[in-house]
Specification:
alpha+beta
């Protein structure tokens, strides 16, 4: 098996999502699933935590209440980042050498188990630390074009979305350390370490994509989001 355990991040107050996720993962044939309570940004007192990351030319932050531009991460972004750090640390604490991390709005394709078998076969001679099963790839930020490495695995482009990804070996610490620095959002911190020159994250994306997100209220965006961009 390409992963030792599955870590499913889920907000305790979103029992609807937890119930849907349990059914979905069971129907898709997943085993060894650990459900990890997410850090709830709603429980962070507004303006108590103030994290101002360095400015990025390609996006800006929005105030969670007014939706006006701001230079701060909102408390829901902080909670999301802490949740992924916790999941990575938890998997490592359990002794996992590799893990699949999912968020509670993930939706896998029916052939996901075949996808995982393909990844296991195609990585026999490939050194990897991180593999996206889905995400929105941005091709307009100056990175090198994605290139095909195996039948299904490609080098990554600048990617948004952490709803389903595999982690292995040194990737646990590389990713959690980058997120913990709070220099940007959690998915953007992945891009930072994928494209840095020194000790980059050995990352790939499986194509065609096999993990998407359901249409639902987004805790980060504070509105219902239909992530059709993830399906392209």
């Amino acid at each position: 098996m390409i992963y030792d355990i599955v870590i499913a991040i889920s907000l305790e107050r979103r029992k609807d999502r937890r119930e849907r996720l349990e059914v979905h993962l069971t129907e898709r044939g997943f085993k060894d699933v650990y459900y990890l309570p997410a850090f709830d940004g709603a429980k962070i007192t507004p303006n108590v935590v103030s994290i101002v990351p360095p400015p990025r030319p390609y996006f800006s932050f929005s105030d969670e209440l007014t939706r006006m531009p701001t230079n701060k991460l909102n408390r829901f972004q902080v909670g999301c980042t802490l949740s992924h750090i916790s999941a990575l640390k938890f998997a490592k604490m359990l002794g996992a050498k590799s893990a699949l991390l999912v968020e509670d709005d993930v939706e896998f394709t029916e052939n996901i188990q075949e996808v995982l078998k393909n990844i296991e076969r195609e990585t026999q001679d490939l050194e990897w630390e991180h593999i996206y099963l889905g995400g929105a790839v941005r091709n307009n930020l100056g990175q090198k074009p994605m290139t095909k490495v195996t039948e299904h695995l490609h080098t990554t482009g600048f990617t948004d979305g952490l709803h389903a990804y595999l982690v292995k070996g040194k990737g646990f610490d590389k990713i959690s350390d980058a997120m913990l620095a709070f220099k940007t959002t959690n998915d953007d911190s992945m891009n930072d370490i994928m494209f840095r020159e020194e000790n980059p994250l050995k990352a790939y994306m499986y194509l065609p994509k096999s993990a998407f997100q359901i249409t639902d209220f987004s805790e980060l965006d504070r509105r219902v989001i239909d992530r059709q961009d993830l399906r392209r």
